[in-house]
Amino acid sequence: MSSSEGLPKKEANVLKGHEGAVLTARFNSDGNYCLTGGKDRTLRLWNPHRGIHIKTYKAHAREVRDVHVTSDNSKICSCGGDRQVFYWDVSSGRVIRKFRGHDSEVNAVKFNEYASVVVSAGYDRSLRAWDCRSHSTEPIQIIDTFMDSVMSSFKMDCCLTNSDAHVVGGSEDGYLFIWDLVDASVVSKFRAHSSVVTSVSYHPKDNCMITASVDGSVRVWKA
């Protein structure tokens, strides 16, 4: 029988500041900070362990659906309902570049290992790759062989724990599930939010995770 011992399930902090649904929450590479984005068109930088809001990034014209941070924590990419991918400088809060090309909302973004390329996915049934080092705003690659949109209306998120032994996923009724990756058993299930869980991010080193929800909150969970 798989054990849930050592897995995070105690609420350590609640991060409040967004107006309306929070659609994405991601730890930075060392897990000391996190970024969130939501319906209020803002990105917010937090110290989740102390429950402190540090900075707000504003440029999106519609909701922010996903965010990712480079491994050196100096740059951010974000996307959302305005069909663009934003490339930011973390410290100044300045938008370095806006990548345009998607024909509909963009739901997911991720840097490659070297932070030289951003890949985005959206409702227009395409994946697009963008060169962060070039001044061009045109994609360097487009993959559009999908038959349906790459994401659905509420992006249901999941992630691996930092040991790769468990999968964490949220549900539309506010519950968080943790599965054993080997035997697929549910080792932990608890009510995390009062509405849809839209995002889950696991700390890179510690037994800690953050969750975001349509209920407008971001919650920090520890073992």
Automatic annotation (TrEMBL):
Q: Which cellular compartments is it found in? A: Cytoplasm
One GO process term, biological-process aspect: mRNA splicing, via spliceosome
Question: Cross-referenced Gene3D superfamilies, in alphabetical order?
Answer: YVTN repeat-like/Quinoprotein amine dehydrogenase
WD repeat start and end residues: 15-56, 57-98, 99-131, 190-223
One matching Pfam family is: WD40
Coiled-coil zones: none
- Keywords on this record? Cytoplasm, Repeat, WD repeat
Q: Name one GO cellular component term.
A: cytoplasm
Keyword Repeat included in the entry's annotation: yes
Question: Which positions make up the signal peptide?
Answer: none
Keyword Transmembrane among UniProt keywords: no
What family is it from? Answer: Belongs to the WD repeat MORG1 family.
Q: What is this protein called?
A: Uncharacterized protein
This chain's source organism reads Tanacetum cinerariifolium
